[in-house]
C-alpha cells in the first residue's frame, strides 16, 4: 500500500437479517416452491448467501391465481386514493430499510455500495412515491376519463438493477390498479424477497404482488400463462423477441425494454473535464451492466488524443474491488456467465485489430472481475462497436462533422440512449433531434427520474417506463388516443 492509498472502509453486513431459505411469495405468504431450490451467491466472493425456491409451472399457476383473486376481490375495487396510501407506505418502508436494502443489493449483485446506497435504493423509493401520487389522478393521465386497469401483469426483470427494475415494474402497475406476478433474475433474487417482507409490513392485501423466483423456465411459464393480461419484460433482445412472438395474437398488452449500444458524442467545444467524468460514469457505472450505458464513445477527431490521454489518467484512479467498501468505484461482474461474455467480446476486439488498454489494477482472486477497459482504433464494422458487451468496456471511434457523428451514432440496431457533449445549445438540440434514441442526455449521462419516460427504438424494445407515459402501459385507453405530435410536419 502506498502512502496515499485509501484504507479499507467496508460497510457492515450486521444490518442484514437474512433467512437461510427463501420461499416463493404468493398470496401474501412465503410458500415452498415445487422446483429444485438454488443458491444465490455473492459474485465478489462466490460465497453462498441463501437458498432460493424455484417456481415450476404449478407455482406460476398458483401465483397467477392469487393475483387474479386479489384483482377481482380487492385491488380493482379499491379507490385510487386508497391504492395510493399503500404505495406511499411502501415508499416510506423502503426508505426506512434503505441501508439494509443497499447492503443486500451490493452483496447479491456485486455493485459498489455507494451506487446501491446513493442511486438504486433512493430511486426505488422515488419511484413508489411518484406513482403513489398518480393513483388517484388517472383521469389526468391523458388516456381519457376513468381509464381502466388491465388485470394481472406478468413481469420479468434482469439482474443489473434488481430492486430498481422491480420498482419500475410494480409501482406503475399497482398505481393503475393491476395486480402483479414478478420474476426477479436467477442471480439476484435477494432484495425482491426482502421487498416481499416490506409488503407484509405495509399490510398490502394478499395476492396484489406475488414474487416468484426461478430461472428462464419460470419466466417463460409466467409470460405464456393464459390468465395474464399484460406482460412487461426487461432483458436481452433475444428473449424479448421470443416473448413478442409468443404473446402475439394473445390479447396480452406487451412492453419490452431491451438492450442498447449508446453513442456518447463528444464535440471539440465540450467542457472536457466534465465530459471525461461523463464518459467514465457512462461506461463504468454499475460495471457497465447498464442497458443505456455509453458504450460507444464518438469523439471529434481533433481532440481524440487529448480525450484518450485524460480518460486514461482518470481511469487510473478508479478503485476496483470489494462492492461493500465505500471507496469502491467498480465492483464485481454479476456472474461467471457474464464475465465469460465480456472476455470473449474483448478478445474479439483485439483479434479485429483494435487496441486494448486497462489501467494497472489488482483484481481479487475469488469472484468475478474485469478491469475497466477501453479500445481505441475501433471502426464501425467491429463487433465491439456493434454488439452489446454489457460490461466495463468502452469502444472509442472518431468523427469529423456533426453529420458524421449522427450517422455513426444511428448506425446500430439499437436505440435506447445517447449522450451529447458540447458548449453550444443549438448544436445539442440539432443533434439530439436527429438521434434515434429514446433518451438523449446533454452534458450529463445516466440520469434517471421517475417523472421522465425511458425506453427504446428499434431492437431496444417498445413502450415507455416512467412518467405519465409509463402509466399507459398498464391502462386501457378506451379508444381515446392522444393527439399526435406532428413535429416538423409543417414548414
Ligand atoms: P435475459 O436472459 O433476457 O434475462 C432477463 C430476465 O428474463 C431474467 O429474469 C431471466 O431469467 C428471464 N428469462 C430468461 N429466459 C427467459 C424466457 N425464455 N422467457 C421469459 N423470461 C426469461 O437477459 P440477461 O442477459 O440476464 O440480462 C442482460 C440483458 O438485459 C442485456 O442485454 C441488457 O441490455 C438488457 N437490459 C435492458 C434493460 C432496459 O431497460 N432496456 C435493463 C436492464 C437490462 P434468469 O436470469 O433467471 O435466467
Ligand atoms: Mg447473487
Describe the structure.
With 491 residues, the protein is an alpha/beta fold. It has 2 domains: 255 residues, Aldehyde Dehydrogenase, Chain A, domain 1 (3-Layer(aba) Sandwich); 180 residues, Aldehyde Dehydrogenase, Chain A, domain 2 (3-Layer(aba) Sandwich). The protein has 15 helices and 18 strands. The strands form 4 sheets. It has a 7-stranded mixed β-sheet, with helices on both faces. It is globular. The C terminus is likely disordered.
Named CATH topology of the largest domain? Aldehyde Dehydrogenase, Chain A, domain 1
Oligomer: single chain
Q: Low-confidence runs (pLDDT<50, min 5 residues)? A: 483-491
**Gross morphology:** globular
Largest sheet: 7 strands, mixed
Instruction: Report how far the terminal alpha carbons are from each other.
Output: 65 Å
Counting helices, strands and paired strands, the structural category is alpha/beta
Number of domains: 2
| Helical percentage | 25-40%
List of distinct ligands in this structure: NADP nicotinamide-adenine-dinucleotide phosphate, magnesium ion
Given the structure, what is the number of helices? 15
SS strand fraction: 15-25%
What's the CATH superfamily of the largest domain, by name?
Answer: Aldehyde Dehydrogenase, Chain A, domain 1
Strands of the biggest beta sheet: in what spatial order?
Answer: 13-14-15-12-11-16-17
- CATH class membership of the largest domain: Alpha Beta
Summarize model confidence as the mean pLDDT: 95
Instruction: Give the second-level CATH assignment, the architecture of the largest domain.
Output: 3-Layer(aba) Sandwich
Please count the beta strands (DSSP E, at least 2 residues each).
18
C-alpha Rg (nearest Å): 22 Å
Amino acid at each position: 500500500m502506498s502512502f496515499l492509498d485509501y484504507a479499507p472502509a467496508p460497510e457492515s453486513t450486521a444490518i442484514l437479517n437474512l433467512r437461510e431459505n427463501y420461499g416463493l411469495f404468493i398470496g401474501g405468504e412465503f410458500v415452498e416452491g415445487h422446483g429444485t431450490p438454488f443458491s444465490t451467491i455473492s459474485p465478489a466472493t462466490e460465497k453462498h448467501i441463501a437458498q432460493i425456491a424455484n417456481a415450476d409451472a404449478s407455482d406460476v399457476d398458483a401465483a397467477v391465481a392469487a393475483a387474479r383473486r386479489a384483482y377481482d376481490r380487492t385491488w380493482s375495487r379499491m379507490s385510487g386514493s386508497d391504492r395510493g396510501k399503500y404505495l406511499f407506505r411502501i415508499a416510506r418502508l423502503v426508505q426506512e430499510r434503505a441501508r439494509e436494502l443497499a447492503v443486500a443489493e451490493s452483496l447479491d449483485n456485486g455493485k459498489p455500495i455507494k451506487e446501491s446506497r446513493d442511486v438504486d435504493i433512493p430511486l426505488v423509493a422515488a419511484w413508489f412515491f411518484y406513482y403513489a401520487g398518480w393513483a388517484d389522478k388517472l383521469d389526468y393521465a391523458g388516456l381519457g376519463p376513468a381509464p381502466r386497469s388491465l388485470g394481472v401483469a406478468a413481469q420479468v426483470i434482469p439482474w443489473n438493477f434488481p430492486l430498481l427494475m422491480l420498482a419500475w415494474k410494480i409501482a406503475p402497475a399497482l398505481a393503475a390498479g393491476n395486480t402483479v406476478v414478478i420474476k426477479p433474475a436467477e442471480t439476484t433474487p435477494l432484495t425482491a424477497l426482502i421487498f416481499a417482507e416490506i409488503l407484509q409490513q405495509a399490510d398490502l392485501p394478499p395476492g396484489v404482488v406475488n414474487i416468484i423466483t426461478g430461472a428462464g423456465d419460470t419466466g417463460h411459464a409466467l409470460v405464456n400463462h393464459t390468465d395474464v393480461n399484460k406482460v412487461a419484460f426487461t432483458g436481452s433482445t433475444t428473449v424479448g423477441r421470443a416473448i413478442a412472438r409468443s404473446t402475439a395474437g394473445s390479447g396480452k398488452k406487451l412492453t419490452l425494454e431491451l438492450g442498447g449500444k449508446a453513442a456518447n458524442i463528444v464535440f471539440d467545444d465540450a467542457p472536457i473535464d466534465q465530459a471525461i467524468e461523463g464518459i467514465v460514469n457512462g461506461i463504468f457505472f454499475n460495471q457497465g451492466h447498464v442497458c443505456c450505458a455509453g458504450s460507444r464513445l464518438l469523439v471529434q477527431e481533433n481532440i481524440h488524443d487529448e480525450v484518450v490521454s485524460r480518460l486514461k489518467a482518470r481511469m487510473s484512479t478508479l478503485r476496483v474491488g470489494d462492492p461493500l467498501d465505500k471507496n469502491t468505484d467498480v465492483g464485481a461482474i454479476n456472474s461467471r456467465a457474464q464475465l465469460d461474455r465480456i472476455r470473449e467480446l474483448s478478445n474479439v476486439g483485439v483479434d479485429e485489430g483494435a487496441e486494448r488498454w486497462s489501467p494497472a489494477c489488482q483484481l481479487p482472486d475469488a469472484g468475478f472481475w474485469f478491469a475497466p477497459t477501453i479500445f481505441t482504433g475501433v471502426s464501425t464494422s467491429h463487433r465491439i462497436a456493434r454488439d452489446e458487451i454489457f460490461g466495463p468496456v468502452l469502444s472509442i471511434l472518431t468523427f469529423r462533422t456533426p453529420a458524421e457523428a449522427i450517422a455513426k451514432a444511428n448506425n446500430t440496431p439499437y436505440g435506447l440512449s445517447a449522450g451529447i457533449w458540447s458548449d453550444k445549445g443549438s448544436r445539442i438540440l440539432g443533434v439530439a433531434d436527429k438521434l434515434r434514441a429514446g433518451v438523449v442526455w446533454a452534458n450529463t449521462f445516466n440520469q434517471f427520474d421517475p417523472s421522465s419516460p425511458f425506453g427504446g427504438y428499434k431492437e431496444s424494445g417498445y413502450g415507455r417506463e416512467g412518467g405519465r407515459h409509463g402509466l399507459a402501459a398498464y391502462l386501457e385507453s378506451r379508444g381515446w388516443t392522444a393527439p399526435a405530435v406532428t413535429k416538423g410536419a409543417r414548414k
